[in-house]
């Protein structure tokens, strides 16, 4: 197994401290705080560990404080409901005695019903696009050390962007883009695991979409960005070790906040998930 995948799976293997109480380790990926996708994935793993015979179909989360990647995170699960078809869980993530994150997730017994979906955008297949998870070496060498370390950190997913990005000279563009992604290695056949991993990777690129119409970049020293909330809906079975198309758009930015939403399509065109996020997008004014 690819070491990056093995490390990611280890990251999602939480230690059970007591009934409804779990502890997860953190990773330094070069950012100033714990990667939001890590907390999402671990919180969903904790909630899933308390549910039998049902699969997550939605989650709604808030990022309250920056996480410290030098310390573990404790996840406390409240078993809010176990009904005939649905279960509901509330998860609170605690670090240094304070809540840094909370999430509510809903689980459902698998059943049939009405079925329709929107169409997947017509884009080039991933084989026609280069690996674009990182900028070229000549651009990397010109970035600040803090930013370069974050970009160069090993990633368990590969990304291929339909629209190329100029990291140093961003141009104003429509608030929409499409990105193919998949895990860098084969994963176990476990639907719960694939949904937790989709939660992890869904935090990449989402909020950045809100900066596209303004020619701004998360690399700029004059812009501050941070996730505030994150929601996901899981529609159909999925595998994150097969190519998925992330179709993102940002309908609005206002009040120092940016809003973005996205559809996740499997390679065969099935809509497997939807996600949305609002985050802080604040311009630092210099005298």
Biggest sheet layout: 12 strands, antiparallel
**What is the tally of beta strands?**
12
Spatial strand arrangement across the major sheet: 1-2-4-5-6-3-9-12-11-10-8-7
Order of helices and strands: HEEHEEEEHHEEHEEEE
Shape: globular
Would you tell me the overall average pLDDT? 91
Specify Rg, calculated over alpha carbons.
19 Å
- Low-pLDDT residue intervals, each spanning 5 or more residues: none
- N-end to C-end Cα span: 52 Å
β content, as a range?
35-45%
Q: How many H/I helices?
A: 5
Name the structural class.
alpha+beta
Q: Considering DSSP H and I runs of 4 or more, what fraction of the residues is helical? A: 10-25%
Give a short synopsis of this structure:
The chain is an alpha+beta fold.
Describe this structure in words.
With 287 residues, this protein is α+β, with helices and mostly antiparallel strands. It is built from 5 helices and 12 strands. The protein is globular and about 55 Å long. The model has no long low-confidence stretch (mean pLDDT 91).
What key attributes describe this structure?
alpha+beta, 12-stranded antiparallel β-sheet, 287 residues
Summarize the topology:
Blueprint: H1 3-11, E1 15-18, E2 21-24, H2 36-48, E3 55-63, E4 73-82, E5 86-95, E6 98-108, H3 137-140, H4 145-152, E7 157-161, E8 176-183, H5 191-201, E9 223-234, E10 244-254, E11 257-266, E12 271-283
Antiparallel strand pairs: 1-2, 2-4, 3-6, 3-9, 4-5, 5-6, 7-8, 8-10, 9-12, 10-11, 11-12
Helix pairs in contact: 2-5
